[in-house]
Give the backbone structure.
Amino acid sequence: MKKRSKKKNQHALRLIISFIAIIGLVSLIYPTFSNYVLPCANTLSCKESLTLNVENNQEGIFQNQKVMPPQIDLTETDNQVAVLGSDTDIKETDTSEEKHIYVNLATQTLSAYQGDVLFMQTPISSGLWGRTPTGEFDIWIKIRSTRMSGGSGADFYDLPNVPYVMFFSNDQVAASRGFSLHGTYWHNNFGHPMSHGCINMKTTDIAKLYDWGRVGTKITIYDGL
Amino acid sequence: MSLLKRELITLVFILLATAASIVFLMKRNVIIGSHVSASNPEDPVPTIIVSKPIENEHMDSPDGEKTLSMDRQPIGDNAAYSFFTSENPDLSKRLIFTKEMPANEMMSIPYNAWTPDNEYVFLKESTENQNNYYVVHNQGNTFSDGSLYIDIQTKFKDQIADFTIVDVTGWAAPNLLIVNAQNNQEDTLVSFWFDMPSQTFIRLGTYFY
């Protein structure tokens, strides 16, 4: 009897040790092989959104509603941006005071500073149906207008002439993912999450920020709790 | 009585009379040597009533093309609210909504008042018991039933049982007003869209926090 129970105990001990060993092994291996990739901000127009696209007089769709995009006139912008429609080469010339944009996801507020001077503070809408990434980013391109589409079913959206787009990226969130700050003509619920991952702004606000910001301007997105 | 006594008595009498006169005149508040005039009762000085200043607030549409402004005029124990819209940069204003209410209640312009297409605005009324929300056409046009505004709180109570409006935050789309509500047990938060064309509420699976 004694021998039997001793064997039982040894068996149970072996099982427990094996279990712990397996857990430990999986924990060591998993980060190497897991390759979670943040989905594109705009799941259908992932690549296409990254280039200039002006489509005047085209309807958009959002929440099963037709929306009319703004007319985009590239000649209204400065010459260099008008030619390119995008700004990759107009770098910051005044480096005396660094420009920095902060987005607080908890308060749904964007603050833009040059040095210690506040340039703008305004409500925004971050991700509701898709996550807005947090961290430190750089603006890598500015595009006056592009088309964004994504979602499915009732959540499907197709939005031409999204105005004043500033795409940002870092080592973890590649430029190809298409996360950006941009103008918004399809909803007016700022101060509350509404997007699929991008930072939505009132068109009048983003127009000023677009003119102020440059390629290389830093963006910090944080939870603000 | 000796002469001296009589002269003394006379002197004392004069001094007393003088003192009494001075006291009497001081109490009358009459300055000797000045002329005092009184206003002619047949020509009263008009009373000028200085009205309290009008307080003003405004909110631009998201594209900057229009402005919604509100004037608040105190009137005794009440306040009169007037709402106007204007096309920028034109300064002429069109009156779209007015209301007078007790001074301890107030109306305000929500941050997301404008629909994305500038067609409608919603206004907020804060009373002791609840907040009310009114949707008004940007030109002050009437709705299909002839009314000048849609009372969201009344519509909600008529259509949705067991829920109370917590907040109306803005527009999910040109015709969809976001209404956040709580059930009567206060343990469930639910969002609705108020659909403008049908004037009905659509319950959502996502909470618009």
Observations:
- Chain A touches chain B through 23 residues (CB under 8 Å).
- The two ends of chain A are 61 Å apart (CA to CA).
- Chain A has two domains: 1-35, 48-222.
